[in-house]
């Protein structure tokens, strides 16, 4: 079982849901924020290849 614990995106108008959403302005920031949250949340970052990354906690 897995749970999406955060979303990091370049496209705020394309993302919605119950997980915290972090909106960034540049691809470089997308990577930096995602990998920082990955460590903080003890989760795995997955690149959806559309300007969005999800952070998933696997249980």
Structure description:
Helix content is 25%, strand content 37%. The chain has one helix spanning 27-41, and strands at 2-9, 21-23, 44-47, 52-58. By secondary structure, it is α+β, with helices and mostly antiparallel strands. It has one domain (2-58). It is built from 1 helix and 4 strands; from the N terminus they run ββαββ. The model has no long low-confidence stretch (mean pLDDT 96).
- Overall pLDDT level: 96
**Total beta strands:** 4
In spatial order, strands of the major sheet run 2-1-4-3
- Rg for CA atoms: 10 Å
Helix percent band: 25-40%
Largest β-sheet summary? 4 strands, mixed
Uncertain regions: pLDDT < 50 for 5+ in a row?
A: none
Number of domains: 1
The first-to-last residue Cα distance is: 6 Å
Amount of beta strand? 35-45%
Pfam families: YIEGIA_cap (PF21835)
Task: Name the descriptors.
59 residues, alpha+beta, 1 helix, 4 strands, globular, YpzH
Give the SSE map:
Blueprint: E1 2-9, E2 21-23, H1 27-41, E3 44-47, E4 52-58
Q: In summary, what is this structure?
A:
It is built from one helix and four strands; from the N terminus they run ββαββ.
């Amino acid at each position: 079982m897995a749970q999406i614990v955060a979303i990091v995106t370049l496209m705020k108008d394309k993302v919605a849901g119950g997980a915290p959403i972090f909106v960034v302005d540049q691809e470089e920031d997308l990577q930096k924020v995602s990998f920082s949250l990955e460590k903080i949340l003890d989760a795995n970052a997955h690149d959806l290849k559309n300007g969005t990354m999800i952070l998933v906690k696997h249980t």
